[in-house]
Amino acid sequence: MSIPNRIYLAGPEVFFSHDEHRAIVTEKKRLLDEFGLVGVDPLDTALAFTAQDSKQARGFRIYRANRELMDGCDAVIANLTPFRGISADPGTVFEVGYMIGQGKPAIGFTLDDRNYQARAGATPNDAQGYAIEDFELSDNLMIECGITESGGRVFTAQGGTEHRYFTSELFQRCVEALRSGFTD
């Protein structure tokens, strides 16, 4: 299998402030560059909107631009740290599935070391009586099993981190795994 070169950087960071987003993405790209890889951020696109563009039209343009970026990448590293709930950001999960669906490898990381059921309340059923999956995985089984079947894995932070949603050490482990897992 050939070594991936262009790596799509999926995660909720696109919702952070400009400065916070830029600092994290700059560090991710720096770490990838150390291994001879190129990081591609969802905001690495030159989209301009007019006042006449509806919110829906803007959304579709962003979607198409991000798909185009993913189409030009060889693999994805996804920040799966729970965002706005007990699970990974849904856009990030879509991006992981999109890349896996193209036969591209995926690597994930989370800064929450609890498994999915623990985050959902550590009970077999939720307040409505519906079952909560318990496979001792970091997130919904479709996410982690899909990543594993793509040749990747999900890394979990152990201990304190420099940011609620990012740590250089954990991201570097993802890069090293991606790089070493796809050498000839």
What does this structure look like?
The mean pLDDT is 93. By secondary structure, the chain is of the alpha/beta class. The chain has a single domain (6-181), classed as Rossmann fold, CATH 3.40.50. Helix 1 links the parallel strand 1 and strand 2. Helix 1 runs parallel beside helix 6. A five-stranded parallel sheet has the order 2-1-3-4-5, with helices on both faces. It is globular. The protein starts with 5 loop residues before the first strand and ends with a helix. The protein contains six helices and five strands.
* β-sheet strand percentage: 5-15%
* Structural class by secondary-structure content: alpha/beta
The whole-angstrom Rg is 17 Å
**CA distance, first residue to last residue:** 6 Å
| CATH topology (fold) name | Rossmann fold
Q: Give the averaged pLDDT, no decimals.
A: 93
**Range of helix content:** 25-40%
List keywords for this structure.
184 residues, alpha/beta, Rossmann fold, five-stranded parallel β-sheet, 6 helices, 40% helix
Which helices and strands occur, and which strands form pairs?
Elements: E1 6-10, H1 18-34, E2 38-40, H2 55-71, E3 75-79, H3 90-101, E4 106-110, H4 116-119, H5 141-149, E5 154-156, H6 168-181
Parallel strand pairs: 1-2, 1-3, 3-4, 4-5
Helix pairs in contact: 1-6
Short description:
With 184 residues, the chain is α/β, with parallel strands linked by helices. The chain is 40% helix and 11% strand. The relative contact order is 0.19.
